[in-house]
Structures are given as C-alpha cells and as structure tokens.
C-alpha cells in the first residue's frame, strides 16, 4: 500500500524544536552544532543529554517536535506516491502521479523557491516510452537524480536506470543486466554510478506466481558485480499495510539498508560492515523511511491505526548504532516528514490550503531545529 500526498504548493517552512528534557548524563558532553535560517528571530531550543550507554533505550514518551520556523513558497499542485527523497540542499523529490497512475516515471523537484522547482521526465525519443513503467528513484549524495524503470523488451521485462542532470535532461541510460522478470522494490544510486537494486524475481509465469528474493550491486555499465545474500526479511508488501524498508547511499560510499528493526551498512563490494538495531514504539510499527546526514541516521517509523498514521522519528549514530533521539511531531507538523539535516533538523509538508492565480496553490512546509548531545 502506498501513501499518497496531495500537494498544491505555496510552502510554509517551519523549523520545529525538540521539547526539552532533563539532563541525566553525569558529565557535560560537547554540543552538536545547530543552525537555522532565521536564528535572529527564533530562539534556540534547549539541549539535552543522553543517559549512560547501559540505558540507551527509547523513553516511554518520545520527545515532541514543534514548529519554530515558517517560510512560504509557491508551486504548482501535484499528487505524489511513496516516500520523498531529498538532496543535501533540502530540495525534495517526489514521484508524481499522472492521471492517478503510479506507472509514469515522472519526478517533481520541490525547491526552496519557484525558480528551483523542476519536472523530470523521460524524453519522447526514448523508444516504446509507453512500455516504460516507474519502479523506483534515488538521489545520490551529490544530488543527482536516477530513475529506475521496468521496460518491456519483447515478451520479458528488463530494468533500466536513467540519470538526469541539474536541468532535468537525461544524460545517462544504463540497462541493468539483472535477471528477467525482476520487480525492483528498493534502489540506491552512488556518486560513482554504482547501483544497489533489491526486489523479487518471478520464477513462474502461471497463477499463482512464485518468486525469489534478489539483491545485487550493479556498475555503471549495467553489469552485476555482486549478488548479495542479505537475508532481507520483512520487506514483502502485505495487503493493507504500508511497505517497509528503504535504501540510501551514504557519502562514505556505503549502502544503508533499512529493515523492519535494523539498518544494514554494506560496502559496494557486498561486505556487511555493521548491523545497527533500533527500537520502535510498538512491535507492529513499520519502518518506512531512512535519511543520512552528518553521521546520523534518521528512521521513519509509522504506527498504522484504523483511521490515522502516527509517526515516530528515531535518530541513530551511523557508526555505533547508539540511539541519539526519539521524537514524535506535534499536531501542527503532522506525519509527512520528508527531509532530515543534522544542522537544520526535520522538514515536514502539510496539507494544501487555498489556491493562487496561474494554477498555483499553497502548502505548509515545516522544519525542526534540534540541539542534542551525543555519546563519544
């Protein structure tokens, strides 16, 4: 099941602050730097310290995130599907729905101003464009967008990756030499044109179909350099449930693969460096998104209730796996967290309100400014 967000955009940006907590560490530790774009008008929220290493567990009640900075942007209305991705500058990339369909490989970049918004589409000269279906996208640490599509070549589907430049033009087309009938689920692109792809390979064409899990590292020529045996349990989509898991490439050149209760750190050669476990507010909660910034991992955890989705945000140290923070946004922020920055906190989008001339509309955008202390 996919989460759908309908945005008609002017964007109100808020930097949200972490609710203060009691300091429990015996000795003061150095602050992680904090920055906001409106420091002259927004007071820095109080810092807090972690308990000793033996007690690094989520508190009974997560710390509350509150809006502390607001900015308004204008953008065209759009509907999107799935988790947004962000570059290091804070621009967000959405897979846009066209005519209510999730198959069109079109991405909308939501920048900080109207001049920075951009639509990425496959060019019309690509043969058999109608047979190219969107499966995933990835923004590299340096900010390059790659879109993964399933293309029907003859009677069997194959997978291709299209790389875009900063102006929205396709500059790279790579056909992956992965097995036929691969249905990709997660995709991550590195700055050196190496890719990680994970999904299921259909092994029978009849009904019911059977499949086997598949994960691999692919180079810039499309060649599979390493098939991976990562034991990726819990990623299969269940009817009526939000899909779990995500994959992102780090600036360190490693893959960070989110599983239901841990993050795998894997090299491009396929070696698993670390397994970082994390706590969830409930055993049935779903780990749906992951972001990296400045040595921190931000994990989106959703509790799927009858009529609502409750979001909890977990911060981990990317090296040690220590839980740095455990947060829940207040009612104003909502549950649509899209970006994370170590210095500027989380960015949220709200529900579209009103409309402007020229087919433009208004959407709130919120940010969170956080200060916290880390174990060394």
Characterise the protein shown here.
This protein is mainly β and about 375 residues long. It has strands at about 5-10, 15-20, 65, 70, 75-85, 90-95, 105-110, 120, 130-140, 145-155, 155-165, 170-175, 180-190, 195-200, 210-220, 225, 245-250, 255-260, 260-265, 270-275, 285-295, 295-305, 310-315, 325-330, 335-340, 345-350, 355, 360-365. Strands 1, 4, 5, 6, 7, 8, 25, 26, 27 and 28 form a 10-stranded mixed β-sheet that branches. It has a 6-stranded mixed β-sheet with strand order 2-3-24-23-22-21, with no helix packed on it. The chain is globular. It starts with a strand and ends in a 9-residue tail after the last strand.
Itemize the secondary structure elements and their pairings:
Blueprint: E1 4-12, E2 16-18, E3 63-67, E4 69-70, E5 74-86, E6 92-96, E7 107-110, E8 118-120, E9 132-139, E10 145-153, E11 156-164, E12 170-176, E13 182-189, E14 195-202, E15 211-218, E16 224-227, E17 246-249, E18 255-258, E19 262-266, E20 272-277, E21 286-293, E22 296-304, E23 309-317, E24 323-329, E25 337-341, E26 345-349, E27 353-355, E28 361-367
Parallel strand pairs: 1-28, 3-24
Antiparallel strand pairs: 1-5, 2-3, 4-28, 5-6, 6-7, 7-8, 9-10, 10-11, 11-12, 13-14, 14-15, 15-16, 17-18, 18-19, 19-20, 21-22, 22-23, 23-24, 25-26, 26-28, 27-28
Task: Sum this structure up briefly.
0% of the residues lie in helices and 47% in strands. The chain is built from no helices and 28 strands.
